[in-house]
Amino acid sequence: MKFRTRAIHAGQAPDPLHGAVMTPVYQTSTFAFNAPDNPGEFDYSRTGNPTRKALENCLASLEHGTHGFAFASGMAAETTILMLHEAGDHFIVSDEIYGGTYRLMMNVMKNMGMAIDLVDMADLDAVRAAIRPETKLLWMESPTNPLMKVVDIAALADIARDHGIRTVCDNTFLSPYYQNPLDLGVDLVLHSTTKYINGHSDVIGGGVVVIDEALAERVGYLQNATGTVPGPWDCFLVLRGIKTLALRMEAHNTSARSLAAWLEQHPKVDRVLYPGLESHPQHELACRQARGHGGVFSLFVKGGIAETHRFLGGLKLFSQAVSLGGVESLIEHPWSMTHAAMPEEARRQMGITENLVRISTGLEDVEDLREDLENGLGR
Ligand SMILES: *Cc1c(COP(=O)(O)O)cnc(C)c1O
Q1: Does 34 share its domain with 98?
Q2: What is the pTM of this model?
Q3: CB of residue 145 inside a 6 A radius of ligand 1
Q4: Closest ligand 1 atom to Cα of 97
Q5: What is the mean predicted confidence (pLDDT) over 312-337?
């Protein structure tokens, strides 16, 4: 079945009790056994819950995997995956990653005895050079945040597989509608379902999809052992959001492309970073491994911090907020918002300057968005 059909039906069937077409919210912590030695399909909601199961099966189907797992947040999903490892293990992690992932790796996992190297994943030789006998995990994200760098997922998965290294790809920015890392050879796909998958800025959630039976068993065991699970109500909301994922992604993609192309020509804009533009250095790679480019792009305002703040302050439709992937357009200033905790030198080295802003294109009329940006930039 095609994506749109699976988004609406995978993992979901009319409720056997009353025929409810929408998966009911099984808001219960525990389930009655038939007899002491005979539980039903579910016994306790940390271990499993029918609403969560529907979401997990739907996620698995959309990401071309065999097993899906839902979590209380993207970070809960990440934490659980990292628990597959032990002290002494070495991780190779993209040097451009989501800030929360950076914090979890550097401030939490390191203290637990894992060794971590941050490596430019676009440089395959650097990745090969970073491999040690104790390397167990390679963690990538594509496109990256906020500089929209695209990395060759299949090539990285190949290198890792040759060395028996497990791979994780954070697919939050493109969603399964545009990119399926399992098809490119990755072992685990990770999502912050908070973003496009739920899509309405009203849930914090995470998801993991795998295709290997033994790995699925381990992740399922850890999900229950660590208790990093979402409640049934959040699962219901994410399931509802998923039903329109294809339509939303198409619209995010179309509007982002149109705004990015227009901004690229604007006299008050220095440069636009969007893999969907031909000017993007990895445009070809982006088109090869993904079917679209999503709704997030970044731009450098001409000038410095004053011009950038004036631009942000002049906007009415775009809320200044972190996060992305919702129906409403958001704009953020990495220098003072998402990446403020990073030392100034590290920010500059990464390419995050005072005049960089990141936009999450929402589903408003694109003409209204363009007009708002035009007013903000000033003629
Ligand atoms: C938001 C985000 C996360 C973390 O997810 P939460 O749901 O906020 O815990 C991880 N990776 C990426 C790329 C994100 O955008």
Answers
A1: yes
A2: 0.96
A3: yes
A4: 13
A5: 95
